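Session log. Operator J.P. requested a structure for one protein chain; no other inputs attached. Running the standard single-chain path with token output.
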Amino acid sequence: MNKKTIILIGFIILKFVLQYALVSPEYDLQRDEYLHLDQAHHLAWGYLSVPPVTSWFSYIILLLGNSVFWVRFFPALFGGLTILVVWKTIEALKGNLYALVLGAFCVLFSALLRINMLFQPNSIDVLCWTAFYYIVIQYILTQKPKWFYIGAVVFAFGFLNKYNILFLLIGLLPALLVSEQRKILTEKKLYFALVLGVLLILPNLIWQYNNHFPIVHHMKELAETQLVNVDRFDFLKEQLLYFIGSLLVILSSFYALLFYKPFEKFRFFFASLLFTLIVFIYFRAKAYYAIGLYPVYIAFGSVFLADVLNSGWKRYLKPVFIALPLLFFIPMHQLAFPNKSPEYIVKNKLGTHIWEDGKEHNLSQDFADMLGWKELARKTDSIYVKFPKSENTLVLCDNYGQAGAINYYTKKGIKAVSFNADYVNWFNLDIKYTNLIRVKTFEENSNEFNETSPFFEASSVCPGITNPYAREYKTTIFIFKDAKIDIRKRLEQEIAEEKNYDK
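Structure written below.
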């Protein structure tokens, strides 16, 4: 094992250590993670909000015991692989050991520590963007057609993980067209690889067609409820923050791509960045959608700086560029990770916290979405077992976070459902339900009890989430026994209405 390999392994081990250390045990999993983990019980070629790849890893986690250790392991693994791909990209660009170490530091101490904290499609998305750009570089360097086919597989995997990777092509294609590398588009084997890619993603496209393209409904809903709150200037501002410790390295890559002779073949990468960012800005994309853009530019910048800092007084700047990512990580460690109690964060006013609603709150939305779930599941379990025939009890939640958390933590085999997200497809209508546990998000002047209790012989209320820092604070559990109506019929009507996207 040579020196470079030992150093690389060291970076990857450090990556794993940090990912586990940066989350305090006070926090549960995050809202989205519960939905993704529940997909392991409902494997399919697509879901209402995401493609199928996340469910495949959820199934592996389930086979491994479904513990929090493994939930944290896979995002850390994808982050470690991103470091590996950047390392290999630097090697392909003939970067020396300093370039490799600089690139690894820049990727390690960046916003990827936050992205790789959660079991979401974002970690694989960044990895696939980085790997695809690496493949483009390898083809240009070697002219070997095998890279077309490898690229098709990587792109298809990225597509089946998150449709966001389409923006990579949208930005890359016009950049190729206006550059000397447009000759790539005349290669016959490129189109054979394109066919391979289409075949790999075809099962998901068929699923979308058979389910009336729910992604269209999801994107419309996302645009109306979240993207409408995205400020385009804030989008650009946040791009600077994600890799702030390596900002000089990335800026150096822009100069290098335009004027550095060894990178002449890769000049189109600068145009690709501009085109991709313009498209993101036009569609008011969330700022983190673009994170996958930057690791390859860290590779370019690292190789360039390793060359220009190799002689004279400039060599004394080498430690500075390596130290900057670590120095910027220190305040980021204080602000960007759930490694301190909610009470401490609120009391000391650590950072500003803008949620998807465009408003400022006293705690990060991700952190607030990691609180109260165990309490909710424990209380639901304690209620569920009191029914004589608990299997005839429907646990109906307001949203996928509530349903997923109950299903993840339950010790009583509960299969909670919701009309929200993928749970609308997971109702068991073969059961004749006689009781209802209704998990309801807190609303001022809610009439849930008065509206529903007339349809049951007995009704009561139990407080749900009492943690004031949880996003689901005051979520309530309503208990309804011995239905006077046919619950299944009501469910069928509600499900039909929910699936009628045009209504």
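Operator note: The chain has a mean pLDDT of 92.
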